[in-house]
Amino acid sequence: MADFDKAEKEYNAKSIELLSELEGIRKRPGMYVEGTGLAGLHQLVWEIVDNAEDEAVNGYGDKIIVIMHKDGSVEVKDEGRGLPVDMHPKAHMPAVQLIFTTLHSGGKFNSRTYATSSGLHGVGATVTNALSEWLDVTVYRLGQIYHIRFHDGGALETPLEVIGKTNRHGSVVRFKPDAKVFPSVEFKWDTIYNHLQEEAFLLKKVHFILEDEKSGLSHDFFYENGLREYVSVLNQNMISLGSIIDFEDKLSPIQIEVAMQWSAQYYSERILSYANNKRTIQGGTHEDGFKVGLTKAINDWAIQNEVIKDSQRIDGNDIREGLTAIVAVKIPESKLEFEGQSKGRLNTPEVMSIVSNFIYSQFTYYITEHKEFALDLIHKCQASQQARNAARKAKEAARGNKQKKVDFILSDKLAQAQSKDYAQNELFIVEGDSAGGSAKKGRDRLHQAILPLRGKPLNTDNVTLERMLQNVEFSTLIQTIGAGVGQDFDPNGSHYGKIIIMTDADTDGAHIQILLLTFFYNYMKPLIDRGMIYIACPPLYRVYKKSDPTRKHIYAWSEKELDEAKSKIGAGYGINRYKGLGEMDAEQLAQTTMDKKSRMLLRVSIQDPLIVEKRIGILMGKDASLRRTWIEENIVFNEEDAFIKEVRK
Fold first, then answer.
1. Catalytic, out of 78, 473, 504, 613
2. CATH classification code of 406-538+603-646
3. Closest CA to 99 of 60, 154, 44
4. Are the beta carbons of 234 and 270 closer than 8 angstroms?
5. Is residue 504 annotated as part of the catalytic site, yes or no?
6. Where exactly does CATH 3.30.230.10 map onto the chain?
7. Out of 315, 444, 506, 595, which one is annotated catalytic?
C-alpha cells in the first residue's frame, strides 16, 4: 500500500501537461495526419490544397497551382477571394493568423461562407503550420497585398503586414515540413501528380497545375467532362460493354454526380465514392444508395419488359460484376457527417434515399432509351448469377460429402500451421522449393504456414475467371486461404490473418510479387482493404568477420546499410550477396525475414485508387508497347539488371 500511496501523491495537478494547440499537434502528429511517413508528409499539401478547392468549388477562381521548390518547400496558389485579414472580434488577432494557429477555426463552419467544403473540422491549415519548419502566407485581397510568416512549428515570426498594392485576388501558402517531425521531407512528384489529377476529375473545368523546380516537369490538369473522363482513364485498357453513362443533379441542396461503365471482360466491381471531394474509402450512405437504386432499376425494368420473372430477380453483386463507377456527392456543411477525422465513411442518413431515388429514375430512363444495351447487360448479369449459383451448389455438395472432404484437400507442398486461431496465423507464399525448404525448417510451426510456388503465376488481369481457376497455382492458393474467390470472397473466412509474399530480391521476384498482387487485387481485394497482404523484406547482404563469421555478422537491406556494416565489422570482412532466398539457410531466413521480433514487412495498401488502376492496366495489360514505353521512361536498372527505383510518374 505504501507504494500505491506514494504514486497517488505524485499523480496530481503538476502531472497534467498543458500544451498549446500547436505543441499538442507536434507531440502527437498521428492524431492529425496519417503518421510521420510519406502519407502524413503529403497530407500537409492536401490540407492546403483543400482550402484552395473550397474556394473553387464555391465559384471563386478556376486555377490552383502547386509548386515543388528546390529547397524542399511546397507552394499552393489559388485565385479565390483571399484569406480574410481583418481583426477577429473574439480572438483579437487577424483572421489569417487565427486560421493557421488555432484548431477548429475557419470558414468551413459557416454555411454563408461555403455552401460545401472538403474539410469538416477546420484543422488542416493549423496542422500544416504546426508540423512545418516555416510557413509563409501572402494574401491578395481588396487591392492590398498582405504577408504573414510563421516558423518553428507555428510561432509567429512576421506579424501581418501590408507589402504592396494589387489588382488580383487569391492566397499563396508556402511551407517547408519540419525534418524533426518527418524522417523524410522529400515530396514525391508521382504522389502529388496523381492526387491533383484525381481532384481535377472531381472539380471539372478547374485547372490544377503542378510544377517541379528540380526536374523542370510541369503538368496542367483540366477536364471538361469530369467523371466521364475519370471512368475513361480507369477503363482505358479494357473491352467495354456499352458506353460511359453519366448523370448529374446540381440543382438540389445535395448535389449528385455519377459516371459508370461495365466491362465485357473483367468480373470485379470498382466503385469509387466521394463526399465533398474527399474519397470515402469505406463507402457510406451515398454508395449504398447508388447500389440500391441501380439494383432496383435493372430488376424492375427487366420484369416490366418480361425479360425475367419477379421470382428471378438479379442480385446486386451480379449486377455490379465488371462495373466501374464514380459516385460523388456535395453536401451542405450542416448535414455533413463522417466517421472520424479520416472521413473514411459518409454517414449522412438522408443521402441514401436521395441517391437511390435519383439513380433509379435516371438509370431507368437510360435503359428505356437504350434497350439493346439493357438486354446485353441483363444477359451478362444472368450469366454471372448462374455461375455463382453453380459454384455455390458445388461447394455445398462437396461439404455434404464427408468422405471427400474437398475443403481440406490442399497442396502436398503446403506446410500448414498447427493453430486454429486463424487471426494469428500467417501464410508465407514462397518463391521456389529451395527457399520453401528453408522456410519450412525455420518457421514457427504453430502459427506460420509455408506454400512454395511451382513457378510464375498466371497474369490474371487479362484472363477470364474460368481460366484463372484452371491455373494450379491460384486454385491451390484459393483452397489454402479458404475464404472463396471473387464475388463470393469473404475475408472473415480466411485461415490467415497475414498473407506474406516472400520472393527473391531480383527482377523475377519482383515480377512474381506483381502477379500475386494483381490476383489479390482482382479476386480478393478485401484482403488488401483490411491490410492483410504483406511483402517480406529479406536482406540483400550479410557482412561478416572472416575470422569469426558465425558470431560477428551484420545484415544489410540497402547500399547505405552495406557501407555502414562494412565500417562496423572493420578490416577482414567478407560479404554474402543474397540474390535468392535459397542462398540463406533456415536459421538465417528465419532470423531476418520470418521471426516476428526481428523481421521487416511491408503492408500493401491502396493510397491512390487512380494510380493503381492505371499501373495495373499498363503493366499487366495486353498492350506491350504501353508497358515498354512506361518502363523505359520510369525505371532505372543497375549493372546486374536489378530493379532500383521508380524515378518518374
1. 504
2. 3.40.50.670
3. 154
4. yes
5. yes
6. 227-389
7. 506
For the stretch 519-561, pLDDT in tens is 998 889 889 988 999 999 999 899 988 888 777 889 998 888 8
CB atoms within 10 A of CB 154: 25
CATH code for residues 227-389 = 3.30.230.10
Residue from 315, 508, 561, 583 carrying the catalytic annotation: 508
Q: Which of 431, 461, 473, 613 is catalytic?
A: 431
pTM for this one?
0.75
Strands 498-502 vs 533-536: parallel, antiparallel or unpaired: parallel
Over the stretch 159-172, which tens digit does the pLDDT of each residue have? 999 999 999 999 99
Q: Which fold has domain 21-221?
A: Heat Shock Protein 90 (3.30.565)
Q: Which residues of 314-346 are buried (b: 16+ CB within 10 A; e: fewer)?
A: bbbbbbbbbbbbbbbbbbbbeebebeeeebebb
User: What does 282-324 look like in DSSP terms, one character per residue?
Assistant: T-BHHHHHHHHHHHHHHHHHHHHTTSS-GGGPPPHHHHTTTEE
Q: 473574439: which residue's cell?
A: 90
Per-residue confidence at 315, pLDDT binned at 50, 70, 90?
Answer: very high
Q: What is the rounded (10 degree) CA torsion for 192, 193, 194, 197?
A: 120
Specify whether 431 is catalytic.
yes
Q: Which residues lie below 8 Å from residue 271, measured CB to CB, with a gap of 6+? A: 283, 287, 290, 291, 320, 323, 324, 325, 326, 327
- CATH 3.40.50.670 range(s) for the chain read 406-538+603-646
